[in-house]
# Entry
Amino acid sequence: MTQTYDAIVIGAGVMGASIAFHLAERGLKTAILERRTAASGATGYSSGLVRMHYDLAVEAELTFKSHKNYFSNWRERVGGECGFQHTSFLKIVKREYEDKLRGNVANQQRIGINTSVISADEARKLFPDLATDDFDFVAYEPDSGYADATLTTNSFIDGAKRNGATLIQNCEVTAIHTAGGRVAGVSSDKGEFAAPIVVNAAGRWAKHVASLAGVEPRS
Ligand SMILES: Cc1cc2nc3c(=O)[nH]c(=O)nc-3n(C[C@H](O)[C@H](O)[C@H](O)COP(=O)(O)OP(=O)(O)OC[C@H]3O[C@@H](n4cnc5c(N)ncnc54)[C@H](O)[C@@H]3O)c2cc1C
# Structure
C-alpha cells in the first residue's frame, strides 16, 4: 500500500534532519527515509565544530545565524540537547596569509560576529599550552565551540516527530517517480511513498539519488 505524505526527505544526516524539522514545523506531514540509521553517514563522523570563521561571507552569515538562533538557544528553539560545548575557537594561518585573515575577520565583524585578531602573546595567555612559533596573529572567536553531531541530528528528528514527522530507517530509496514534469513520490525497499515534495538530502550519495529522478549534474 502506498503511504502518502506532504514531503519526503531522503537521508537522515544533519541536513535531512534539519530540513524535516523545519518542514514539520510548517505543518507538512513529513517522512524521512534513511537507508541505514540516522547520522550513519558523514554526520556521525563530524567533530561538530560550531564556529563562524569562513572565507565566504555567505557561509559566515549562515553560521552566525545558526549559532545565534540554534546552537546557543537549542533547548528553546529545537528542544532536547545538541551537546554544545563552549570552548572558543582560534583560526591560525601562516604569516603570509595574515592580511587575508584580517580581511576575513573584518567581514565577519560587519556581519555581527564576535571575533577579533589577537597577537600570539595574547593567544598564549588564553591557551598556555599553545605553540606559537609559526604565527604572530590569530583570529579569536570567544563564543564558538563544538556540538555532538549525532545528538544534534537526533534532536532535530525528535523535534520533527513532535510535529508529526515519521523517521523510517533501513529504507533505501531506489526510484523517484515524476508525473507531468513534477516529482510524485519514491519507491524504496520498504514500499511506495507518494508526495508532491521530495528533498534529496543524501549527502555524498546525492548525485546518485538525483539520477533516480533523471537529474544529472551540469558539467
Ligand atoms: C554540529 C555540526 C557541526 C559541523 N561543523 C562543520 C564545520 O565546522 N565545517 C564543515 O565543513 N562541516 C561541518 N559539519 C558538517 C559535516 O562535516 C558533514 O558535512 C554533514 O554532517 C553532512 O551531513 P549530510 O546530512 O549532508 O550528509 P550525511 O550525514 O552523509 O547524510 C546523508 C544520509 O543519506 C542517506 N542516504 C544516502 N542514499 C540514500 C538513499 N538512496 N535512500 C535513503 N537514504 C540514503 C545516508 O545513509 C546518510 O545517512 C558539521 C555538522 C554538524 C552536525
Notes: Residues 10-16, 33-36, 40-43, 46, 48-51, 147, 149, 152, 172-173, 201-205, 209 surround flavin-adenine dinucleotide (CB under 6 Å). The chain has a mean pLDDT of 97.
